[in-house]
Amino acid sequence: MIDHLRYQTLKPAKVSYALVLLMCTSLALLGAYSASTMEQAGHIITGMDNHTVWGLPHVFAVALIVTASGALNGATLASVFDFSHYKPIARFTVVFAISLLVGGLVVLILDLGRPDRLIIAMTHYNFRSIFSWNIILYTGFILVCVCYLSVMMEKRFHHHITVVGRIAFVWRLVLTTGTGCIFGFLVGRNMFDSFLLIPLFIALSLVMGLCALAMIMAMLERWNATLLSDELLHSMCTLLMLFSLTLLCLSIVHYMLNLYVPSYSQNQQPALSGIYSSMFWIGYVLAGVAMPLFVLIKRPFATATQRLIISSIFAFIGCLVLLYVVIVGAQSTPKVLFPGKTIIISRFGDASIPVYSPTLWEWGLSAGGSAVAVLLCLVILRVLPLLPEPQK
Amino acid sequence: MYTASSKPTKSQTARRHFLKRLGVLGVVSAAAPVLLSVARGADKKSTGIKSDAVSSKHRWGLLIDTSKCASGCDACVRGCHAEHGISSTGNDHTDAQWIRKIDLQDNLTGTLSSLPMMCQHCKTAPCVDVCPTGASFKRADGIVLVNKHTCIGCRYCVLACPYKARSFIHEPITDQQSWAPRGKGTVESCTLCVHRVDAEEDQQPACAVACTNEAHSAILFGDLNDAESEISLAIEQGQAHEVRSDLHLNTGVRYIDL
Amino acid sequence: MLVFVLSWSGVVEFGFAGDTKTPVIPKGKGDHCVAETDYMRRNHMDLLVHQRDETVIRGIRDEPFSLVECVDCHVQRDAENTPIRVDAKEQFCESCHAFVAVKIDCFGCHAAVPDVASVENAGRAHEYESAENNSARNIQWIPHKQLLSFKQENMVSQKKTYYRNHNVHSLIKTN
Fold first, then answer.
1. Site from A116, A126, A130 to mutate, B interface, most B CB atoms within 10 angstroms
2. Which of C56, C125, C159 lies nearest to residue B199, judging by beta carbons?
3. What is the ipTM of this complex?
4. Where are the domains of chain A?
5. Residue from C56, C104, C157 whose CB has the most chain B CBs within 10 Å, to mutate
6. Is C9 found in the same domain as C48?
7. Does domain A7-388 have CATH number 3.40.50.300?
8. What is the pLDDT of residues A256-265, one digit of tens each?
9. What is the CATH number of the domain that holds B189?
10. To the nearest whole angstrom, how far is the Cα of A353 from the nearest Cα of chain B?
11. Do B29 and B147 fall within a single domain?
12. DSSP secondary structure of A227-288
C-alpha cells in the first residue's frame, strides 16, 4: 500500500469552530455538574427506580459505544475490504471511534451508584459476567485502535495495516456482540432474553456508526477538510440504505417473535402496541427508516451531501429511539412470576406497568458524555495530522 | 550511571535506608494480623462464639406455606424492616423492598392466595452470574448476598433477577443498625438474616419470627441439606414449588400450596 | 495506601511543622485498643479490610477487628449522653482523616454510633451469652404488639425511645 496522501491537522479559522467547542465544553460541564449532583443526592433525583433500573444514561452510553464500533468501519472498509475511497478518512475515523467509546464509558461510569469505586471495577473481575468481559473488550478496543492508528501513521509499519485492520474489524464485531449479550442473556426479563439482540446490536452499530461519521464529516467539511468525495458519498448512501433495511428487518422480527412465543405473548408488547408503540412506529420506523430511505431514493435535495446528511440525522435519531424502546421498553413489561394467576395486590407494583420519565440530570449526563466524545475528537484532530490535505 | 566500584553516594544510602524501612513496614503489616489473631485467639476461644467459616454442609432455606399466610397481614415485612432498619420514604418504587406481600387470584378457580416474595436464594443465581465485580455472591451455605464493599452500583443484578428481589438504594441512609450496614449507591436484598444465622444455632430470620409471633407460622426456616430437618421433611411431604421453576434456578425458598 | 502510610510516618516520626491543626484524638474506652496504638494507627485499614472479607464472605464474626467494636469504644457522648457519630467533625475517626485528607468510606453504610439493645439484637446475641454477668441474658424484648403499633416512618427512633424509657441500655455492657 503506497500512501500518496498527505495529512494535516484541523486548521479551523472560523467562528463556527469556536462555537462548536464552546457548546461542547458547556455541555460537558453540564454533564459533570449532573453527575456530581447525582452522586451527592443519590439516584432519587433521576427518573430511574427499582423497576426501570437502566434509563436514559444507559441508552446514550450503549448508543455511543455501538456508534464507536460502527464508526471504525470507515477505516476497516479501506484496509480490510480495500475500498480505496475510504482511505483518506481512515485515520480520522479511528480517532473518532476512540472518542465515541470514551464518551460512552464516561456516561456509563458516572451513572454508577458508586462511581468513586471505578478502581474496584478495574481490579475485581467476575469472569462469568458478560459485563466484565465488556470492560475488557472496551479497554481492548481503545488499545487496538491506538495500534491501528500508529501503523497507519508510521510509514515503516504500513505493511501491518491489513493485519491490524483485520484484528480491529473482528474486535469491533466481538465488542458489539458483547454489548448485545449484556441484554440478550437476561433470563429474568422476557423482552430481553433473545439471541436476536446480538445481530440487532451489530446492525445498530453499522447504521449509527455510518450516520455519526457522515454528520461529523459534514461538520469538518465546513472548516478545512475535504473528505466527502463523490465516490465516498455514493458508497455511504448505498450502505446507509442497506444497513437501515437490515436493522428494520431484525427489529421487526425481534418484536414479532416475542408476539408468537406463547409464554412471551402474554406479556404486554411495549413496542408494537404498548406505551412505547408510538415511539417505535413513529420515532423509529417512520422517522428513522422510512424518512431516510425516502430522502435517499426519491432525492428531494439537490446535492448528494445534503441527502446523506439529512438522512443520517434522521436515521441516527431513529436508532436512538429504537435503543430507548429496546432498553427502557423491555423493563416496562411486568414479570410473569405466577403463570395462571393474576396479581391483585402488591406494594411493589408487580402487576402494573412502570412509567419512566428521565429528569434533567439524566439528560445532562447523557448530553455531557456525547459532548465529551465530540470534544475529544476535535482536540485530537487539532493536534495530530489525521485529515487528508485537499488535493490540487 | 553504573560504575564498577564506586562508593554509594549519600543520597543512595538514604534511599536504601528508606527502601529497607518500607520493606520492614510491609513485612510487619503482612505478618501482624496473623500474629495478632493467633495471640488473641486464646482469650477469644473462651467466649464460645461460633467462629467456623460457613461451609456447604448446610444450605439454608425457607419454606412458605401460603395456606397459612393471611391476606392483609404484613408482619413479616415489618419484622424484616425493623430488623434491618429499613424505613419508608413513601416512594415504593425507589424504597428498598427486601420482602413484599403479593396477593394472587387463580385465573381458573378464582381462589385467592397471599404470600411473601423475597430473594429466593437460588443455587444458580442470575444476579451472581451477571455481577461484574463479583460483589453479588453466594455463600458456601447457599445464602445469596451483596458484598457492599465491592458493589459499584451498576444495577445489572437488579435487571437480571427474575423475582425483582433486588433493590438499589437511591438515597443517603443514616440510622443503620450495626448488624445491617446499608448505604446509598449500592444494591441490597434479603440476607436471610445472615447475622442471626451466623450468631448461633437455631436462630430464625426476622420474618419467620414475626410470622410466628402473629400466630400464622407460615414461614419455616431450616437446613435443606439435612434430610432430617423440619423443613426437608415438610418439603418432602407437601407439594413444595419453586417460583418460576421453568428457569431451573434451584431456589432456596419454596412455596407450599402455590 | 502507600501514600497514606507514608503520610502517617511523616506525622508520627517527624511531626508536621506547618500551620495545620493537629488532630484531636478523644480517648476511647478501657486501657488499650485491640492492638498497640502505633500499630493501629498504621494498619487499622488493613485490619478492617481483612476482617470485612472474613465476615461478609466466610461468615466469621468473632474476629477482634470489627468496625462495630471500634465504634463502641471510640464513640463520644454529648451532655445528654447521646452518642455522637464517630465520623462527625472532630470525633475519633474524622479528626485524623480530615488531617491526612483521606475520605472515610465506612459510615455511608455502617452505623456510626453504637446500638441500643433490642429484640432484633440477635445478631450480636453472643455478646450477651458470653458476658460474665448472667443478668445480661435477661434482655428486655419489645413486646410484639408494641412493635406493631410503631409507625413505619419513624420505627427506628420510636424503638430507640422505647429502649431508653425502659432503661434497656444498661443491660448491654456488663463491665
1. A126
2. C125
3. 0.91
4. 7-388
5. C56
6. yes
7. no
8. 877 776 655 5
9. 3.30.70.20
10. 12
11. no
12. ---HHHHHHHHHHHHHHHHHHHHHHHHHHHHHHHSHHHHTS--TTTTSTTHHIIIIIIIIII
